[in-house]
Amino acid sequence: MTKINRIITLGLVLMANAMCFAQNQAIIPVPVAAEWHEGTFSINNKTTIGTNVASLRPAAEYLSGVLAKETGTKIKVKKSAKATIVLALNSEGKEGAYSLHIDKKGVRIEGCGYAGVINGIATLRQMLPELHYADIIDEPAKSWRGMELDCSRHFFSKDEVKELLDVLAFYKINKFHWHLTDDQGWRVEIKKYPLLTEKGGWRTWNNQDSVCFNRAKKEDNPDLIPDAKKTRKLADGTVEYGGFYTQQDIREIVEYASVRGIDVIPEIDMPGHSLAAIANYDGLSCFPQIGWGKLFTTPLCPGKDKVLAFCKDVWKEIFELFPSKYVHIGGDEVDMKNWKKCPDCQKRIKEHKLKDEHELQAWFTHDMEKFFNANGKTMIAWDETVQGGLSATQTVMWWRSWAPNAPKETTSHGNNLICTPNGEFYLDYDEDGKSIGKIYNFNTELDGLSAEEQQRVLGVQGNLWTEWVPTRERMFHMAFPRMIAVAELGWSSKENKCLDDFKTRLSKHFALLQKMNVTYRIPDLTGFYNTNVFVDEAKVKVNCVDPSAVIRYTTDGSIPQNDSKLYTGEFTIDKTTDFTFRPFDKNGRKGDMTKCRFIKEEMAPAVAGKDLKPGLSAEWHEYTGADCAGIEAAPVNGCYEVSEVAIPDSVSGNIGLIITGYIEVPADGIYTFALLSDDGSYLKLDGNMVVDNDKEHSPREVIGQHAMKKGLHQLYVRYFDHNGGQLRLNVFDQNGNKVNVGYKH
Question: Which of 40, 550, 606, 615 lies at a 20 to 30 A Cα distance from 447?
């Protein structure tokens, strides 16, 4: 039995040891197994790093650099294994597995492949400054632990991308999915088509920038103001925003990532999301008139041979820049209406005996895939490409949470799958107190998959789209700490994970993130709801899991600043009060503010109800508005009986719902209502607004309270959405017990 197998077979005992050790050391992701011993090893000016394997020399230099930065001590690298820190290869275990031994003589890291050594270095870094004597055996549960960064909507410089790669390596993230092209910008130099970056890499201010500017003012947040350093002024005075990476920039970033054990996967989005190319080279679309349709932009024309040649020319240069096995073609959100009218597209459909435009996209995708395969590459595409038929080699990235059959359709066909459903893994969605748990508790053992199909689930990925992420600071704010939860989900075994334990370890990582200059999102303040109700008096108690957070507040509606009233502990109020709370870090960096109301009210009396039966009434309106106000005036598509506040099964597309009925409460008391929706919703009880979750937004839960006497109370809900959508209401009594909803005539 090998050393690794011998230790792993200690089973539950070592798992328990690992959990305890990781908590004491705050190691993320939690290791498979660990034993620790009395004593610590210190880094000093006599410490050396050695390896007799030439392929590990970059890892040794990398470790020397990070130790110098983190300890202030310059560490010499030797071309031999006679050193106090030894890096070595071990062929045992999964790719990326490692062992870490620390005793009074020094440190030894053995890795299965280069990636294993880098993963051991990540654990070592998290143990600093005191390296406790220990034996750690560790390996990843999933081979794909990724993050996507969209550099098309807003551009991030070469140095900013490197900063992100440094943090990803710290948490054993091994895939960097780089979204380089889209409608708003083309970011990678293609020498055969220079206009792609000369013109396509720049744009005037657009509606996404307007949202950022407006939010920056409303939320008192300069991180939402697009970076002025990424603008240029034309001869006529026009200011354009943008930027691009030269091919030398790309090579430098790819090499930088490789040293840190990270594969860089380029995405060149096609045939949709290609306006930055179509606008600068004639003949790439079906017709000369191009632009935005109702939801998406003009796509490439798969009926024209010229377009196929253009795409392959672009990819030839991409292949030379990116050594990764995988490349991503996009393939999502294609507006096919032009294809229906285009003679070239219709000719292609007829020639290849295709059924429809979805099969035309599949034909285009398969043609490109053959080209990829011939160049030694494996193609990844978004899950929309399942619809027209999969090839034998394509990997599917499942993002549409409202397409739950995509994983089964993919893996049963024999294709690999990467999980990144938007409900959990879209980091551009606003974070709230439940976001970390939703990511961490995501079950990668997907429903309905056989054991063989489950083996084709490569792993998980967090995606950061940047329509409203215009700066480096905002990028880190949106990605962290959520990406840390993605890291542990992808690395650690199900048996070795515990959300409460993870949160305890995470609370110790905020100081590490500050040290790395990561402008992470200061976690939600807790201890109150959006609307809080009391009858006599209320205690105001505010908490934050970040121990370094400084909490300040106002009661006059103004935005808290660094000189606003400091929250120092629980206090009591006896009248209705509006609070605005805001956390700050120790350097005064501003966090997200939270507004809440503490309302003093009397118990609402119950109403009489006759001939009631279980359930609620739902009325579906064909609604295209951006808030709940106009739903009632829109045409009615149908009426339904529903058992709870939710979207009826047959309702889709443009949704405007009005749900009415009664809730029966078992006793006098203050009840809590948690309304989750994507997009907007609100809840009224007894004619009073209890939860206001209106306007367009990503999935968001808002919580309010209402004081009610025992009996029936009128319930009224409005909700709207236009693409997918979520709606859920949970009701709890004063003891946290769930209360059922509801009754109807």
Answer: 615
